[in-house]
Amino acid sequence: MNHDENEKEFPSTRAKGDEGEELAVELLKGKGFEIVERNYRYGKGEIDIIAKDTAKDFLVFIEVKSRKNLEFGEPEYAITQKKIKQIKKIAELYLYEKNIKEADCRFDVVAIQFGQSAKPQINYYENAFE
Length: 130
Hints:
The chain is of the alpha+beta class. It is built from 3 helices and 5 strands. It has a 5-stranded mixed β-sheet with strand order 1-2-3-4-5, with helices on both faces.
């Protein structure tokens, strides 16, 4: 698949996001993560992926950001303080809803850049914010 084909495959922002999340899931599974939940929603907010890092015994809330190009900057920079605050709030609600009282948790980020090459550039940030 070349870049032009990539661009044609993303008719909407949602489709691009879904493709990015699929790549993130593959990456996380390759790292030995157990995917617990995808697209956990509360109100208008969402956590893209919730997974267990079985090697380190962490429950991980993962934000995935995908971009077709750098027109609006690198995907990592789309994670604003407002977004971080929202993710933390939803994570707390998730823990409450699932009655999880004791768990080591962290927030990771997977940033995906669909660029000129056939293979997307994927950056993974463990413990991206606290």
